[in-house]
Write a structure and sequence with these properties.
By secondary structure, the protein is mainly alpha-helical. It contains 5 helices and no strands. It has a single domain, classed as Four Helix Bundle (Hemerythrin (Met), subunit A).
Length: 151
């Protein structure tokens, strides 16, 4: 893939991230106002389901597309996901691979939780972690503008 097509792909992925983050922020605001509680009205439950879904989509987009796009623009071999995460840490996009793992673990939890008691825990963690995903997006945006002339 040429640098020009890599930059174009990065720009598309950055635009997708911006959209995903805007929707995540909207859901976060709604669910923060609802708060964590033992039971939810159907509309509140729907709001949290939307928040968790948007969280999962945002983290997938960032990890699976955006970080790999940055690698390609910087002429890095795509490699494994671990390679991509390690390079993100070297670029100071994340504080540590463990941090990104915790964000991803919540995404996996969202995909597999079906027990009501566990869902309440997942909702609480999503409220806690969503701002970290938003901050990660801010770091990626800044890095891309500063270093890749793509944002």
């Amino acid at each position: 893939m040429s640098r020009i097509s890599s930059l174009r792909q990065l720009q598309e992925n950055l635009a997708a991230m911006e959209s995903a983050i805007r929707w995540l922020q909207r859901s976060l605001g709604i669910c923060t106002a609802i708060g964590v509680k033992p039971d939810y009205a159907p509309e509140e439950y729907d709001a949290f389901e939307t928040l968790t879904s948007r969280y999962a989509r945002a983290i997938d987009l960032i990890i699976r597309k955006l970080l790999r796009s940055i690698d390609l623009v910087e002429f890095e071999e795509p490699g494994t996901l671990i390679d991509t995460v390690n390079r993100a840490e070297k670029r100071s996009l994340i504080d540590s691979a463990a941090e990104l793992r915790s964000l991803t673990d919540l995404r996996n939890e969202i995909a597999h939780d079906y027990i009501k008691a566990e869902l309440m825990h997942t909702f609480a963690r999503t409220l806690q972690y969503a701002p970290r995903v938003i901050a990660l997006a801010d770091r990626i945006r800044s890095y891309s503008r500063k270093n890749l002339t793509a944002g």
